[in-house]
Write a structure and sequence with these properties.
globular, alpha/beta, 10-stranded mixed β-sheet, single chain, Rossmann fold, N-(1-d-carboxylethyl)-l-norvaline Dehydrogenase, domain 2
Length: about 325
């Protein structure tokens, strides 16, 4: 794993982990921990997701508190700050059940001030907190190849080290204060949301021009206009497959946080604001839980443009 972690060596390698949130990212992270030799207990309100982990040999418990009991590391992979607070401090929350000295690795995307507040509450109980947002998508989560943007104390990094090694290809240690990792993640989400909206606009515009969308994909991914989001998300449009890998409403939330941060700082973000409106409109038409590439479908509906289903594989690059 490529790392910019402080040179801290854990005194013992923790081998019991709890993963709260077994969605597309959390399930892959739990499986990566399991492959690395951890005994992993998972918890998710979605019984189907929990069953997937159980089928792979993982332990399942009905509450965060039960999952956290005896865990050295608790990895929280829920949606936002409110859900993070609930699984830590709500009824049957994990915070009091964790052994003293255990570390919470919080991977939800949230505003920096919320990460700082949660860290303060956890650390007041004698546990550790690592602000550790993630990037990379479900496939890389399943391969243990995520990018983790982390900030926290040297003790938190040391305690979480073996788990981070199992889950990440790249770990960025971004400071000793929780909230810094969250701020870095919001810069990433600003760009990611803008790039998805721009890619969706471009592919729908290409369709309106009567272009072969498979050929458009081939040309653009070999040209200067390409982006990671164009290359990763536009195949969903080409295959007419909007099964959510990352949902539209994720970017309604994340770009909303960017807007709140920018307003507080009196900093203009007009491009992010325009992208947020596209995600909001897509959600308002009933596609909030669909794949975020559904922004292209919104453009198609507004303009009466057909995004015809293409062959199952893009043409090979030459």
């Amino acid at each position: 794993m490529t790392s910019s972690t402080p040179n801290t060596t854990p005194t013992a390698s923790p081998r019991r982990a709890a993963v709260i949130g077994l969605g597309s990212m959390g399930l892959g992270m739990a499986l990566s921990l399991q492959r690395a030799g951890f005994t992993v207990t998972g918890c998710d309100v979605n019984e189907a997701q929990a069953a997937k982990f159980a089928t792979a040999g993982g332990e399942i418990t009905p509450s965060p508190a039960e999952a956290a009991r005896d865990a050295d590391v608790l990895v929280s992979v829920v949606l936002n700050a409110a859900q993070t607070e609930a699984i830590l401090f709500g009824p049957e929350g994990a915070a009091d059940a964790l052994p003293e000295g255990a570390v919470v690795v919080s991977s939800a995307t949230m505003a920096p001030e919320m990460a700082r507040a949660l860290a303060g509450r956890i650390e007041a109980t004698g546990r550790l907190y690592l602000d550790a947002p993630i990037s990379g998508g479900a496939a890389r989560a399943a391969e243990g190849q995520l990018t983790i943007l982390a900030s926290g104390s040297a003790a938190a990094f040391a305690k979480a080290g073996p788990a981070l090694d199992a889950m990440a290809a790249k770990l960025y240690a971004l400071g000793d204060s929780p909230g810094t990792g969250a701020a870095f993640k919001m810069i990433n989400q600003l760009l990611a949301g803008v790039h998805i909206a721009a890619a969706s606009e471009a592919i729908a515009f290409a369709a309106r021009q009567g272009l072969d969308l498979r050929k458009v994909y081939e040309v653009i991914t070999a040209s200067a206009g390409n982006s990671w989001m164009f290359e990763n998300r536009m195949p969903h449009v080409l295959d007419d497959d909007y099964t959510p890998r990352s949902a539209v409403d994720i970017f309604v939330k994340d770009l909303g946080i960017v807007e709140d941060m920018a307003r507080s700082a009196k900093f203009p973000v007009p491009i992010a604001a325009a992208a947020l409106q596209m995600f909001l409109m897509t959600s308002a038409t009933g596609m909030g839980r669909d794949d975020d590439a559904s922004v292209a479908r919104l453009y198609a509906r507004i303009t009466g443009t057909a995004l015809a289903k293409q062959p199952s594989q893009p043409a090979p690059k030459t």
